[in-house]
Specification:
With 245 residues, this protein is α/β, with parallel strands linked by helices. The chain has helices at 16-24, 41-48, 57-63, 87-98, 111-114, 142-152, 173-187, 216-219, 238-244; strands at residues 2-6, 27-31, 53-55, 75-79, 103-106, 129-131, 157-161, 163-164, 169-170, 197-202, 210-215, 228-232.
């Protein structure tokens, strides 16, 4: 059996059921590139009483060592947030089915629900998108297309900011806003400007969470922790505006 175990947003989000499963697994792997949390590997290993093997992107998407013994033994793949929040993990389910490996999913808190702490209604969010680090030969703009689509239907937009835990590199709210402004100016778009109302968040779902709102230019000077996200609201209901105040 292969268990996809959600770690949630904070170390204490790990459920009793998940702990029971991990303690009976002979191999435990940790996917360490689609998110980041306050988990310490040593804390985790002490909690479950066994070694945890950390996997990079290639190991999760291509090599998939957690499949090797999953037909005859209990194997766990730990995932930050919720186990099925990223498309990578859905693909693992499809691959397991082809290999006739049984899979059980243990869900947990994720950023996709924690954003409700802002006071915005989850029902009013449109498509979410990731804002990646720009490089010399890699400057995608597809996330801006999603912002434009959501604004047309007056839906809120959640931007997940890029992170590379292995390099201790996390995109900041300031960097994300800077990229959005550059794209808007290039396209001569009025969807995003210095005065666009935004909500910046970091470490949602933890005791260290920060939520600040204001014009884009104002948020660029505010301090946030990591990991962070940026929300561009669509049409706000009265109760949402009251919550934001």
């Amino acid at each position: 059996m292969l268990y996809l175990v959600s770690l949630g947003l904070s170390f204490k989000d790990l459920s009793v059921r998940s702990l029971e499963v991990l303690k009976k697994c002979s191999e435990v792997y940790l996917e360490n590139y689609t998110s980041a949390s306050d988990f310490s590997l040593k804390q985790l290993e002490k909690l479950i009483g066994k070694k945890v093997v950390v996997l990079n992107r290639d190991h999760v998407e291509i090599v998939k060592p957690f499949f090797n013994n999953a037909k005859t033994r209990n194997i766990a793949l730990l995932v930050y947030g919720d186990a099925l929040s990223a498309t990578t993990h859905t693909e693992i389910l499809q691959s397991a089915k082809k290999k006739k490996i049984k899979v059980e999913i243990l869900h947990g808190p994720s950023i996709l629900t924690a954003i409700a702490d802002t006071g915005l209604s989850l029902y009013k969010f449109g498509k979410a998108a990731s804002v990646p680090f720009w490089q010399n030969n890699f400057k995608p703009e597809s996330f801006f297309d999603i912002l434009e689509e959501n604004q047309k239907i007056q839906a809120h937009t959640l931007f997940l900011l890029d992170l590379r835990p292995e390099l201790n590199k996390f995109m900041t709210v300031k960097e994300a806003i800077d990229v959005l402004i550059k794209i808007a100016r290039k396209r001569k778009s009025k969807v995003f400007t210095n005065s666009t109302f935004c909500i910046g968040c970091s470490q949602l779902g933890t005791s260290e969470q920060i939520i600040k709102s204001g014009a884009a230019k104002e948020l660029m000077s505010k301090r946030f922790g990591t990991p962070a996200c940026l929300i561009i609201p669509g049409k706000l209901a009265d109760y949402e505006m009251e919550a934001l105040k």
